[in-house]
């Protein structure tokens, strides 16, 4: 259970990091769209787990590796935005949020099940 402070800091980091990725994203990933879906922060506010949805590429792990490589710069830019709200900018850990991909796969499975359950035209006419 997150405290109120953790929730506030999580929302603040999510908002500001989204802005940083919008401004700086073109040199980081080109035409790939990256969206910050969730931020979870440790109780001592020292570590932020950032879950990202990535659209426009099949090699999503490479995008995460690229973000990890540029993590000091991203953290610095985030710090410039949050310097008046937070004393210490948390360590950033990026994760791939595959919930959208999972939902799409489940939707396909449900469609196949629905198609298989439909009685064929011949069975309906008899």
How would you summarize what this structure contains?
With 126 residues, the protein is α+β, with helices and mostly antiparallel strands. It is built from five helices and three strands, in the order H-E-E-H-H-E-H-H.
Radius of gyration: 20 Å
Strand order of the largest sheet: 1-2-3
Order of secondary-structure elements: HEEHHEHH
Known CATH architecture: 2-Layer Sandwich
Within the CATH hierarchy, at the fold level, what is the topology? GMP Synthetase, Chain A, domain 3
Descriptive overview:
- This protein has 126 residues and is α+β, with helices and mostly antiparallel strands.
- The protein has one domain (4-97): GMP Synthetase, Chain A, domain 3.
- Helices cover 57% and strands 19% of the residues.
- The protein is built from five helices and three strands.
- The chain has helices at 4-29, 60-69, 71-82, 99-117, 121-125, and strands at residues 33-41, 47-55, 91-96.
- The chain has a three-stranded mixed sheet with strand order 1-2-3.
- Helix 1 (4-29) crosses helix 3 (71-82).
- The longest helix has 26 residues, at 4-29.
- The protein is globular.
List keywords for this structure.
126 residues; alpha+beta; GMP Synthetase, Chain A, domain 3; globular; single chain; 57% helix
SSE layout and pairings?
Elements: H1 4-29, E1 33-41, E2 47-55, H2 60-69, H3 71-82, E3 91-96, H4 99-117, H5 121-125
Parallel strand pairs: 2-3
Antiparallel strand pairs: 1-2
Helix pairs in contact: 1-3
